[in-house]
Each structure stands twice: as structure tokens, then as C-alpha cells.
Amino acid sequence: MKRQLAWLVTLLVALSTGCGVGSTGPVPAGAPASGLWADSLSHYAHLYFVGPYGIQAVLREVSAPVTPQQALDLLLKGPDTAERARGLITEVPPIHGRLTARTADGAVDLFLPVPVANMTGGGLGLSQIICTTANAEVPGGKHPPDVDVRVHEAGYSTAWTVRCDAAGNVVSVPAR
After folding, report:
1. Residue 17 and residue 77: Cα distance in Å, rounded?
2. Which residues of 114-153 are buried (b: 16+ CB within 10 A; e: fewer)?
3. Has residue 80 been placed in a domain?
4. Domain annotation covers residue 3
5. How open is the CA angle 97-123-114, to the nearest 5 degrees?
6. Residue 19 covered by a domain
7. Does some domain include residue 119?
8. Opening angle at CA 114, ends 111 and 116, nearest 5
9. What are the pLDDT digits (tens) for 4-20?
10. How many domains, the chain?
11. pLDDT value at position 13?
12. What is the CA radius of gyration of the chain?
């Protein structure tokens, strides 16, 4: 009985003392952070390469924001020395003809010079292309995963629409 009473008293004391956080409101902490000039901010191209665990986003420093076409051109050059040292490769197959990416209506129109079925290597390379173009500077204030990429294949009259999610996966967008 004495043990139960001691336990109860201990419990009541613990509950009545609270957690030690006072009930003060916001406390002024001084001026906001400063010191960075707008001209000193770095810009990065988001490129997608393939690593040991699948597709992987890479940030490559550039002098200004890149368009989808500029990002695509960087991707087609392949990983740089530091990226290769980290085990990154490209699965973008050799494509005869020019890959073109243009922005329109807050989306990216991606023009493939060959049908997807004729691209050797398949899925990962196409994911690299789509995610790289979706993560470039798209007018209209949209950012992934809300950027539609309309893929136009040579030999087909209609485009299909996809998006790139945060993990670098290409997901289809239902027809509207």
C-alpha cells in the first residue's frame, strides 16, 4: 500500500510540473539574415543520370537558369569527371537526329527524332531525358512534379503527356 501511495504521489508531482517550457510568446531575435547579393546566387541545372541504385538527380552549377533545351544539351554530353567518379553513367541511347525541347503554356514539348520503340536501351534513358527537361526553367511558374512534358515521337501525330516525380520516376498524366 505504501509503495502504491508513493507511486501515486510521484506521478502527481511529475504531472503537475509540466515539461519545463514556459508560456512565453514570440521573442524578438534581431534583424533578418543578410549579406548575400542577388548576383552571387548560384544557379544549377538538374540533370538525371543513372547510378548503382537507379536514376539519380545531379545538380550542376551553371551561370544562369537553363531552358529545357540547354538542360537537354548538357545531359547529352554525359556525366562530367566528378559525376563519373561517383559511379554515374548515362543510359540515353545514341539518337540519330536532334532531340528538341521547347516550352509552351507552362509545359515542355519534347520532340524525339525517332519513335520510342526504336530507341535502344529503353526506359532509363527516356526517364533521364524527360526528368531533365521537366526540371529546367519553365515559364509560367510551374515546378516539378507539376510540369507536363508532352512527348512528340517521330512518325506519330499525337503526343503523350508525362510528369517527373520527386524520385525521378516518369508518371503518365491522364488525358483531359
Report:
1. 64
2. beeeebeeeebbbbbbbbbbbbbebeeebebbebbbbbeb
3. yes
4. no
5. 20
6. no
7. yes
8. 90
9. 545 554 544 444 455 45
10. 1
11. 45
12. 26
Count of residues making up the chain: 176
Q: 88: which residues sit within 8 A by CB, 6+ positions away?
A: 49, 50, 51, 56, 58, 79
At which residue does the C-alpha cell 524527360 appear? 130
pTM recorded for the entire structure:
0.74
- Percentages of the chain per state (helix, strand, coil), in multiples of 5: 25, 25, 50
Q: What is the pLDDT of residues 52-85, one digit of tens each?
A: 989 999 999 999 999 999 999 999 999 999 999 9
Does the pLDDT of residue 34 top 50, yes or no?
Answer: no
Its domain, for residue 84, covers: 42-172
The Cα-based distances of 163 to 9, 12, 85, 86, 141 in angstroms read 60, 56, 29, 27, 16
| 101 vs 139: CA distance, rounded Å | 13
Q: Mind listing the pLDDT tens digit for each residue in 130-160?
A: 999 999 998 888 888 899 999 999 999 999 9
CA distance 47 to 58: 5
